[in-house]
Design goal:
mainly alpha; 0% strand
């Protein structure tokens, strides 16, 4: 309720396309996503992405975040081709705009690994996850428990990737 009220207030005061309004839209979509309200999250993420592309530009970091958020919803909904296209577009732009060593590169590689696992592509998932860890992904605890990666549990290659991520965490 508070997120909706905040968003409504920002729309009234700053307008629909103000960056703070767009951030509030993204936060509300994230809340829907977290609650499993996929249709509502998708609609709001999609609207936020369209507005950020128009207002902030295709290469703005917030636009790239919106691309990943929408791609994650597509993945959860089983819309794997759409998710992959957005993740790959985001990855290419993040590398160009933020640099190869930016944490968003590692996070997008991780997301591609999760998507490959959901698709049943074990080798692809391990390759993407390996790249994510090579680029600094260190959330080993998330990786070890991520339900998107359950097909990889017990695989020695996966266990080695998780161990490398743990080492990255320090």
């Amino acid at each position: 309720k508070l997120h909706r009220e905040t968003l409504d207030s920002l729309r009234r005061i700053l307008g629909d396309d103000h960056p703070r309004t767009l951030e509030a839209m993204n936060e509300l979509a994230y809340l829907f996503d977290d609650q499993g309200r996929n249709a509502e999250a998708e609609a709001l993420y999609s609207d936020t992405l369209a507005r950020r592309r128009r207002v902030l530009g295709e290469d703005h970091p917030s636009t790239l975040t919106s691309m990943n958020n929408l791609a994650n919803i597509y993945a959860v909904e089983g819309r794997h081709a759409e998710a992959e296209a957005l993740f790959l577009e985001s990855l290419q732009k993040v590398r160009r705009v933020l640099g190869e060593n930016h944490p968003d590169v590692a996070n997008t590689l991780y997301n591609l690994g999760c998507l490959a696992s959901l698709r049943g592509d074990r080798k692809g998932a391990l390759d993407w996850l390996d790249q994510a860890v090579t680029h600094g992904y260190s959330h080993w605890d998330v990786m070890a428990k991520d339900s998107d990666l359950k097909r990889l549990h017990g695989d020695p290659a996966f266990d080695a990737i998780v161990a490398r991520a743990k080492k990255n965490a320090g």
